[in-house]
Write a structure and sequence with these properties.
Strand order of the largest sheet: 4-9-3-10-11-12
Largest sheet: 6 strands, mixed
Structural class: alpha/beta
CATH architecture: 3-Layer(aba) Sandwich
CATH topology: Rossmann fold
Radius of gyration: 17 Å
Strand content: 25-35%
Number of domains: 1
CATH class: Alpha Beta
CATH superfamily: P-loop containing nucleotide triphosphate hydrolases
Shape: globular
Number of helices: 6
């Protein structure tokens, strides 16, 4: 078992992967990305999509570490789409209709409508044309987009997020901007506890965390699972928390 600790949007997160996951899934993926890069002078962009709580963020960081630990000829960087949440000020001033009622976006934060899709799209296009860009990041301690940004300049860039492969109007042309796509499939019931505990780490009570899961995370997970375009590679999350093909 390989164990790592990462700081993810202001929280310390533990991650562990088996030797089989590394050998059977991750190394072949990194080899494939390296081969893609060897065939082009352009930056290689890979999307990693998954329902909330499926472990895509920690996996993206682990893949970055794994790439750097091996003798590859290129640079690799993992980034997240979470920094493209609309700021809380915007979410507090805009609403969406749910079940015949208008609900503030702030209460449903995390749904596709709470993201600045136009900005996300333009930044991904910039990845394809600019050597270095500044990428927004999200801070779960602030519960808002951070005032800081992340410099992105690697040869291979992995972007992770729930909706990168979403097959809905406005979102369904994003996948055309990547060179390779990966999806983690995870039935929502397998990640419920993870999501509730993650919300509690941010200072939310258990009752509020469960309510948020039912109102937002569960709905978002079902959306990702049922309305995403087919990925080039698919991993499945088992009940034990392991990834398999």
């Amino acid at each position: 078992m390989i164990k790592k600790t990462y700081m993810v949007t202001g929280h310390q997160v533990e991650a562990s992967y088996t030797e089989e996951e590394v050998t059977d899934l991750f190394m072949p993926l990194l080899n494939q990305l390296t081969e893609l890069k060897s065939q082009t002078e352009n930056r290689v962009i890979v999307f990693l999509a998954a329902p909330p709580g499926a472990g895509k963020t920690t996996l993206s960081l682990f893949l970055e570490d794994l790439y750097k630990d091996n003798d590859y000829p290129y640079t690799f960087q993992a980034i997240s789409m979470d920094g493209f949440h609309h700021r809380n000020e915007y979410l507090d001033q805009h609403d969406i209709e749910r079940n015949g009622e208008k609900v503030l976006l702030r209460k449903l934060k995390g749904i596709p409508e709470s993201f600045d899709l136009q900005s996300l799209h333009s930044h991904i296009k910039a990845l394809k044309t600019q050597k270095t860009i500044e990428w927004p990041i999200y801070d779960r301690m602030l519960h808002d987009v951070s005032p800081d940004t992340q410099k992105v300049d690697a040869d291979i860039v992995l972007v992770e997020g729930n909706y990168l492969l979403l097959d809905k109007e406005g979102w369904n042309d994003l996948h055309q901007l990547c060179d390779l796509s990966v999806m983690i499939k995870a039935p929502v019931e397998t990640v419920r506890d993870r999501l509730v505990k993650r919300k509690q780490r941010g200072g939310t009570s258990e009752e509020e965390a469960v309510l948020h899961y039912e109102r937002t995370d569960r709905v978002n997970g079902e959306l990702v699972m049922s309305h995403s375009v087919e990925a080039d590679l698919t991993y499945n999350l088992t009940l034990e928390g392991r990834l398999i093909k």
